[in-house]
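User: Hey, quick favor. My workstation is busy. Could you predict this chain's structure for me?
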Amino acid sequence: MTTAARPGVGRLVRVFQWTLWTGLGLSVAVAIVLKVGPVRELFWKWIPIYVKEGGHEHTGHFYLYDPRLGWRNVPNRKSSTCGNPLTINSQGLRDREYSYRKPGGVGRLLVLGDSFAWGYGVADREVFSEVLERRLQADRRSWQVVNTGVSGWGTDQQYLFLIDEGFRYQPDVVVLAFYLTNDPREVSRSDVYGLSKPVFLNKQLTLGNLPVPRPSQAKSGLTSPVDPFDMVVTLIEAINTACRSHNCRLVVMKFGRFADPKHQGLLEIERRFEAAFAACRKRIPYLDLDAEFARRNIRPKLLVAGNEDDHWNQFGHEQAGMILGEFLDEHELLGVSGRRGAAESPATSPAAVSTGETRS
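Assistant: No problem, here it is.
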């Protein structure tokens, strides 16, 4: 003779079954949201979306999707680039931590740039911005050098970052690390390196491809009708105007021909850029890093040996940081002295700074 189950036991079994199936359902739903790209992207405001360049895993090229910039560094990331330490701080910079508010009595130099400023293939301490900062500190000068470079960024993305966030760091000097070889090409397109980005459609800086398509969405394939060299110079002018409105000074540091100084294609690219930039030369301090490498008889192979895609190695970054520091001193862009106790402020007002034309 069987005994009927007590009602309380039956309820416990049903609650257990409901809990089990609910938990399994939620687990499946979470797995779908996290693992299925198009579904995850529906929640991009709350869940980060990551993008990367295919075939570049060993270089550390792994980014956070950004609807305005296309991509940016992943905050609080520790990884490696070609086996060397790669550290991204909480604000998404390959640098140490900085508060937005500048300490009293301290000058700030902010670096804009792409993979060269970001430090492709070299360790954190070897990037030219760190070399420059150590040089200033060794000379007892109260300056901080904030590196905002992101690999693959064009001058357009660098401009947008500067006006959106860069000025929050209260820089006294902004250095635009301008890579001659691909920066003009990048500003003309909405799609580069397999990634989507914003693009300016005219010289009035009307911005297209916003919000930037998410990874699973179709690429727009927009191309700006403006000549790429004219667009680059238009952006440099816009950066210069923005800097002056924030009481800081822009320096353009151009490089790219160093990889093969006699290459006719690079010479033509340089000629076109120099022609477009000519009207700016007396107003914007301009460091021709290619000319400086040549003047110092530094062979191209020494600058890139052991790294990839003609990116600077440790020696290359060391030379770039040293040359940039000498240029800033020569043109008194860090103040007449810049030493602690020499003046109330380490920075010089824009009106007091001499223009920087390329040395012959």
